[in-house]
Specification:
The chain is mostly helical. It is 55% helix and 1% strand. Helix 9 packs across helix 26 and helix 11 packs across helix 12. The N terminus is likely disordered.
């Protein structure tokens, strides 16, 4: 029986793969935009009846089905402690079997996306959701997952070691590093303001869905397209339950500062690590700082799993790998900005710092996202063209990785599209089987917004916010990059005034922080980095 299964699988692998029909194929045949196809199939768009019927006929002719997202977010926003056994001599672990089953299924998804052959194990793991598995059943299946092999036809090269990444990365061109002290400070301040503004803008839309879901939600509040912070729209979406009534702090008319978010906590934390340990900090120093200064319940997905691993004595990079299904999520990417701020004009330096931080909790594309963003921010100090900024980020990551391929494809789609919604439809289709917090769809949305915004701060951050998925992360990253490109003095007052130059953090030792003070501290590190590279 096993030999027969292997033979069938081998035959399937040798069969020529039929070209997959995409949303752009349907749009081109019907003579409409990809967004029109998406809106027609979802039933949400204001499409003329004749056009709608024509699109539906084309869809039927081409046997196309729009792949909507097939999974909910693995947000892990709340950690609950269950009551123990109460036994004085025989304490028992309180294991949430449902949660452990979720972890197992998420690991299956992750292994599949990384190119492992899951064909012989997938059905037995999927069925556990409807069964009543024991902890032993879960452990057996974890062991099987951990011993899978990569598919022979997997075409990507995705190392996680520095030597491996260096061998697979692109070639970067030296950038001119020449700016006055005032210009450097203004660019850093602009990046920090942009990050705080973007995070505040995106948080009320976080994980509400894709670009169509966001449009439907904002239209209920007469706020589409976005040109300001999100207003209060009643009734609140179900997702607000995690931070009601705190959500008021993020809404137009109620904003008094940039409210706390993990996207902001890590910026402050990594600044303190650079101040204490210097630019040659180690991954172990990052890990120790997490345990000393971060609360377990204030971190999520990959970081939470890595934190538990650190407590159980798995040091970096093992902390990123052991039982961590979220190792290619967006977490490392949102931690990377300060490495770009402190290496102005030096994307290679920024990327290596981001790698040392990311490897505590992430692998492969999870690491590359941090390297891409940090390098793009570093380049934004020296170039004024968003396309050049993106290319600087792209150059530091493995060129045959899923991320590099997806970014190049997103650049191509954006150049070919008449509106950003067409690109968002393409990204939604391509990553329909990925978690909303996975790094790949989200970095593509950032790239799309940077190109579509073309350096305009408001256009860039509102576009990525309306794109959906992990909106607070994406708007924070986009705002940071475009904030550096523009500098603080050029950011519109309507965006800067509501946050009053203040940022809230849960980081121990920090609460309500002056953003200009953070900029001044960051500026000192950036000057030191520049002086070191100049040999002074």
């Amino acid at each position: 029986m096993l030999a027969k299964k292997k033979q069938v699988r081998a035959e399937r692998q040798n069969m020529p793969e039929l070209p997959r029909v995409t949303i752009r194929d349907v749009a081109e045949k019907a003579g409409v935009s990809p967004a029109a196809v998406s809106l027609t199939l979802s039933g949400r768009g204001r499409i003329a009846e004749e056009t709608r019927q024509h699109i539906l006929e084309t869809v039927a002719q081409m046997n196309y089905v729009l792949p909507k997202r097939r999974r909910e977010s693995s947000d892990l926003r709340v950690f609950r402690v269950e009551a123990g056994s109460g036994s004085e001599y025989h304490p028992a672990r309180t294991v949430n079997i449902e949660l452990q089953t979720t972890f197992l299924n998420d690991e299956l998804d992750q292994r599949q996306q990384e190119g492992y052959d899951v064909s012989e194990i997938e059905s037995s793991i999927r069925v556990l959701r409807q069964a009543a598995p024991t902890l032993y059943d879960i452990e057996v299946n974890w062991s099987r997952l951990e011993n899978l092999e990569l598919r022979s036809d997997y075409r990507y090269q995705e190392p996680s070691t520095w030597a491996g990444i260096a061998a697979e990365r692109g070639e970067s061109s030296p950038l001119e590093v020449r700016f006055s002290a005032n210009q450097l400070y203004d660019r850093i301040y602009g990046g920090l303001l942009g990050r705080a503004i973007g995070c505040t803008l995106g948080r009320p839309l976080e994980l509400l869905g894709d670009f169509e879901d966001i449009q439907e939600f904002l239209e209920r509040g007469d706020a589409y397209p976005l040109n300001d912070y999100v207003p209060e729209i009643l009734p609140h979406p179900p997702g607000y339950v995690h931070y009601d009534p705190e959500v008021q702090k993020y809404l137009r008319g109620h904003i008094r500062y940039a409210p706390r978010d993990d996207d902001l906590d890590y910026t402050v934390l990594n600044l303190t690590i650079l101040e204490r340990c210097g630019e040659n900090f180690t991954s172990e120093q990052i890990a120790e700082s997490w345990l000393q200064r971060l609360s377990y319940n204030a971190i999520y997905t990959a970081e939470r799993m890595a934190y538990g691993n650190l407590v159980n004595q798995y040091g970096p990079p093992d902390s990123a790998v052991f039982r961590n299904p979220y190792r290619e999520f967006i977490g490392a990417q949102i931690r990377a900005d300060v490495f770009g701020y402190t290496a102005p004009g030096k994307p290679d330096v920024a990327a290596q710092s981001a790698w040392r931080d990311a490897r505590v909790s992430h692998v492969k594309n999870g690491i590359y996202g941090a390297m891409f963003v940090s390098a793009a921010i570093a380049a934004a100090f020296s170039v004024n063209d968003v396309a050049a900024v993106i290319q600087a980020g792209l150059a530091v990551i493995p060129q045959n990785s899923r991320m590099a391929v997806a970014i190049r494809d997103t650049i191509d789609q954006t150049r070919r599209s008449q509106n950003w919604q067409d690109v968002a439809a393409y990204i939604t289709e391509r990553f329909a089987d990925h978690d909303p917090i996975h790094v790949l769809p989200n970095v593509c949305l950032v790239v799309m917004a940077l190109l579509w915004g073309d350096g305009d701060f408001e256009r860039s951050i509102t576009t990525v916010a309306m794109g959906g998925w992990d909106t607070d992360c994406n708007t924070a990253t986009t705002g940071s990059i475009v904030g550096v490109l523009n500098g603080a003095k050029r950011l519109p007052d309507k965006w800067t005034a509501p946050i009053n130059n203040q940022m809230e953090s849960w980081l121990w030792g920090h609460s309500l922080i002056s953003i200009s003070d953070l900029a001044q501290r960051t500026y000192g590190l950036a000057r030191r980095s520049l002086n070191t590279s100049n040999g002074t």
